[in-house]
Amino acid sequence: MTALFLRDLKLSIRAGGGALIGVLFFLTIVAVIPFGVGPDLKLLSRIGPAIVWIGALLAALLGLDRLFQAERDDGSLDLMLMQETPLVLTVLVKCLAHWTATSLPLVIASPLLGLFMNMDETAIGATMLTLLVGSPAITFIGAVGAAVAVALPRGGLLVSILVLPLTIPVLIFGVSATTYAAVEDPAPFLPPFLILIALTLFFAVIGPAAAALALRNTAD
What we know:
Blueprint: H1 2-14, H2 19-37, H3 41-60, H4 69-74, H5 76-82, H6 87-116, H7 121-148, H8 156-166, H9 168-182, H10 190-219
Helix pairs in contact: 1-6, 2-3, 2-6, 3-6, 3-7, 3-9, 6-7, 6-10, 7-8, 7-9, 7-10, 9-10
């Protein structure tokens, strides 16, 4: 499992620019918002957490279609289906490697982008914390879409269409937690934050299982 994690981590970084492309796309989305909204610093600080979360969500969708594509191209997907190690565990490790290579850099870059949106220290910290615990759920959800579309020649758009509606609850509670911490009393931060953790744990169980099932059906 360690060898698989390191292998997928290297593939995720190399394929299509890896983490750098995601961070640049994240930076582009957040950087252009002040030009569209205008020089209203209060408005920017109020909508800042939501914009950072939306940018991170869209950036995280970029490489999801390549989650199982390398195994499909070189034929190792068939070996994954026949190995003794449970396929669910293999998919889980691949999801963790993909998140480490693509979404973790977005979490690290979020404080800098928060400054672009005139967010204070509390809002930046809350945004980074919610992205850290909520972004894995996006990867686990995306694994299902990637498994469904792995046999299609151009499944990238289909993966985004399948995944985006399912990530809305994660986006809602992530933005709710950061908004409460940034704009209102910090006390209401905990309930949506705990729900966000629960969503990640839920999809950590459901996502790899559903993706493994989809991969087996695709192979059949």
